[in-house]
Amino acid sequence: MRTSGDKGVVREAARGFGVEASAGSASRFVVLRLDSARRVFGSDAAIARALDVDAAQVARWRRGQRPDRENGDRLAALDVVVELLDGWFTPGRLLKWLEGANANLGGRSPLAVLRSGDLPAVIAAVRVQKSGAHA
User: Fold this and answer.
1) Burial 55-82 (b: 16+ CB within 10 A, else e)
2) Among 4, 58, 88, 102, which residue is least crowded by beta carbons within 10 Å?
């Protein structure tokens, strides 16, 4: 659950990226996140499947509609993981990693764990992957 204090953290993080915390810039930030994911997934339809939303929803986000909190968090989490593994994997290999069963996640795929809202568990799996130590 977010508190009013969280909004200040989000604004500060946005300023750190050179983005003002306005509705228009928030929409642009969503589009940047979608573009980042598209490098891996190849299409907005594939991003929609990964996030478990209708493809029309992703199209609305591209046109400026802000995602609801849950989907915004999912998109942000996906962007974080893509950026953490950028340069470690080719886009195709990263997609396989995101969709594949992961022993460090109890056999679940990183995407399934992200959809459940457990970004810290996926980040821990990323750290294991980068360290070369596999479960």
Assistant:
1) eebbeebeeeeebeeebbebbbbbbbbb
2) 4
Closest CA to 105 of 84, 88, 86, 126: 126
Instruction: Write down the residue that tokens 């992200």 correspond to.
Output: 114
Structure confidence at residue 27 (pLDDT): 83
0.90 exceeded by pTM: no
CB 52 within 8 A of CB 78: no
Q: Rounded to an integer, what distance in angstroms lies between the CA atom of residue 17 and that of residue 4?
A: 21
Contact between residue 79 and residue 30 where contact means Cβ atoms under 8 Å apart: no
**Residue among 114, 115, 108, 113 at smallest CA distance from 135:** 108
Scanning the structure block, which residue is given the tokens 């989907």?
71
pLDDT at 17: 40
What does the CA dihedral 62, 68, 70, 75 come to, rounded to 10 degrees? 10
